[in-house]
Amino acid sequence: MTSNRSRVTAVAAATALLASACSAGTPEDNTSSASTPPAQRATSPIDWNLPDAQRYHRLATYPVYLNRPAGEDPGAETVAEISTVTPDGNTVIYTDAAAKRIGFLDIRDPSEPTGLGVLSLAELGHADDQPTSVAAVGEYVLVVVDTTGAGAGGDFAHPSGRVDVVRVADRTRVHSIDLGGQPDSIAVSPDGSFAAIAMENQRDEEFTPGGAEEGDLPQPPTGFLQLLTLAGPPAAWTARKVDLDVEQARAAGLDTPQDLEPEYVSINSRGQVALTLQENNGIAVIDGKTGAVSSIFTAGAQAVDGVDTAEDGTLDQSGSIAALPREPDAIGWIGDDHLATANEGDWKGGTRGWTVFDAMTGEVVWDAGNSFEQLAVRTGLHIESRADSKGPEPEGLAIIEIGGRPTALVASERSNFVAAYDVSDPAAPVFRQILPTTPGPEGVLAIPARDLLIISSEADDAEERVRASVTVYGYGDAYAQAGGKPAFPSIVSGDLDGTPIGWGALGALSADPGAPDRLFTATDGAYGPARILGVDLSATPALIERELVVTEDGKPVTLDVEGIAARPDGFLLAVEGEDGAGSELVEVGTDGAITERVKLPADIAAELGGQGLEGVAVDGDQVWVALQRELKSDPQGVVRLGRYDRADESWQWFGYQLESTDAEGDWVGLSEIAVHDGALLVLERDKLNGPDARVKAIYRVDIPTEGGVSGTAAPKVLPKKLVRDLLPDLAATNGFVQEKVEGFAVAGNGHAYVVTDNDGVEDANGETVFLDLGTL
After folding, report:
1. What share of the chain is helix, strand, coil (3-state, %, to 5)?
2. 415: CB partners within 8 A, 6+ apart
3. What is the pLDDT of residues 389-430, one digit of tens each?
4. Rounded Cα gap, residues 230 and 38, in angstroms
5. For every residue of 643-654, which 3-state class applies, written as one string?
6. What is the pLDDT of residue 150?
7. What's domain 68-259's superfamily in CATH?
8. Is residue 614 classed as helix, strand or coil in its secondary structure?
9. What angle do CA 120, 734, 111 make, to 5 degrees?
């Protein structure tokens, strides 16, 4: 690493370089990577800034483990899958298949959902019964129950189920109807006269039919539809079975017509029932009054270009998928003449988007192509580990009218968002907004009378403290003030030649020394190769508009970049290794090429684990670094700040006293360091998230005038002063408080900025929060 101070000073004056070609767009720009030609700046094809009156505002995120029975372990798995709401719009009822119960939430104040307890299915039948869907009807809730596994561990060849009619007021069952098979979804007709239940009779994924692959069809018995009459008192409600004609299904070109497995059901104003046959890649339309099957048609196949198809840790959107069956899951009516499907796929297909069909002819009038996955990429929600499977996996879907517009709401099971589209013209949907959720959004429930939207998420990971939740959104001006700030997305990427810059796992921030309204950030080891990204702060949301690939010997390299410091002649990267020996400072030139690597002193590295270098800042020839965790020989709770002198290549170390939470399994460490106004600003955080989060803060440490210790001698602990508690800022989004507050910088405009690391949407909900803290 160079020690020539005069060269640094001279180059600092030459701000035309602006530290990297990814910042300026001047003729001197020097960006060179496979995806970013010199002087090319990405632009956003989407206007993310809808007026308050035309958008959803996140009001609350309620982790459903808070609604557990007294005495239950808070770490026990509990989820929210499908939800319904009482006619007054005040009580949400959700299914919890993991805990084999249904739950109740009071949303009279949608900004403060309150748990009203649960009803175990053991009280209604057997401890192994599982709820699959719910639907409110008057003072009752219809609880659809799969009893196939009751008492015997499951018998796919002899499926069974029922629907229980439960009075909401006292949670007592007043009637029960045998369904003659294993049920999935339920829908109630708009006029309330009947309900329809998709009877899946699902396949055993571990069974191999003769002459077929494991988990393949046919696996009798076939599925069907049940129609429930809802006239009179509940005791008079009965079920009527509707069989689907095998020959009609065969003529439509369905895959295995002798074993249809209905998945999802929706009913239009005419009383027509639309039914997806996911494994058979089909759709059926049935007259709900007579039970006559009007039509069965194939959902068809779709080829998609411009998507990530390889699970290789690289955000590469140059792949294609051949024409695969759509295999739709959720379905909804757009008016009475068109159907929309979320094409999740099962084991043979899935096309990463959603489709609009003519309901009478089965003709495709619009398909999302790669645009749904591109939404995930632009907002940092692309899950690379699913690239070779079904990508974002659109699963849930609802069609509503909001703000005078017919609107499709499509949920991504893997990328954890719901996308809203104006479908006033079913042949030309228009994207409106993206709504973040906790992992595995499945239930999408609109409450039109209150302009509310309820999203229930089915993934629960207590060990990682990422919990299944019910998220509440409110539409329009009335909810704007209570809505989360900053609105999502707070940072997005632009497109280069029609392809969005892939990003995620942002663990570092630095000011651009040549542009007051720009920052630099970098992807960490969740993705490769390492890339330095330029962020335009003048855009709303902040816009990632450049990328610079880090190379060595002319080849892209993967680095776990945790800190970045931009200088007029390049960058310093704080790289965290798998162990202490892998932690190093890496100097990168304006062309992205590595010019030097500086290892930590061997005695320091030997006492570090996998949580080493985490932040870096430059003050003239002095380089300051933050180690995330304590050395093995240092006192518990004392972590180190290091000062590296580039002139004589010497290291000095100072102590920093961490906060403590006393929470089981928690630790507190450092994330970032910056030099500002003659002091060090240090970002400190715990490992907790959601309602458990306790320590997310910026502290000030005066730059010491005396020397520090060398080697592993006990360092002197520097006094610190709280500058900003970030918990209120993170909670203000009304989302799940993020764990990894990782990046921090003070830009040339005088504002401080913070960004959260979304872990590449692995073991996290994937939401990135980019905060403008104003002046400190």
Report:
1. 10, 40, 50
2. 376, 381, 382, 383, 391, 392, 393, 761, 766
3. 999 999 999 999 999 999 999 999 999 999 999 999 999 999
4. 67
5. EEECCCCEEEEE
6. 61
7. YVTN repeat-like/Quinoprotein amine dehydrogenase (2.130.10.10)
8. strand
9. 65
